[in-house]
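Below is how a single chain appears once it has passed through the pipeline. First comes the sequence as given, then the structure the pipeline wrote out for it. We keep one example in the README because the format questions we get most often are answered faster by looking than by reading.
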Amino acid sequence: MSGKRTDYISWDEYFMGVAKLSAMRSKDPNTQVGACIVCEDHKILSMGYNGFPKGCSDDVFPWEREGDPLENKYFYTTHSELNAILNYRGGSLEGATMYVTLFPCNECAKAIIQAGIKTLVYDDDKYQNTPSVIASRKMLDAAGVNYYHYAGGDKTITICL
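Resulting structure:
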């Protein structure tokens, strides 16, 4: 064989793959979301997944989705996007790109905007008609954050652990 390979994965496939792999760290029994933040030079700056904050045991805090607000997960979990932003220790995220497996809620959109992230690549958009995601889109549009749906690749990648 001469010349370079032609079946390598694209940058979008690579970074969305990292986000999907990060999502696999989530212990949430219902929804696993991952995020990967990269700079213009295609270097990974940070990653995150949804879960409880440091020091809050996932054996003690609730994973339920229904019931009393103090007895379900929503007051306690940190979304993957915010975790990825907070996990970054290198300074500014100005101009970065975030890959995320689920379109961000309004709270995460605020953090993305405030962090200076300029491009958002998302995979799933199953909550697109909810008030949270509608508000998220309005804010991202107003702040000039570009976003697009991950087109997906035609490759199957198997990782054996």
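Strands lie at 34-38, 44-49, 97-102, 119-124, 146-149.

See the next section for the split statistics.
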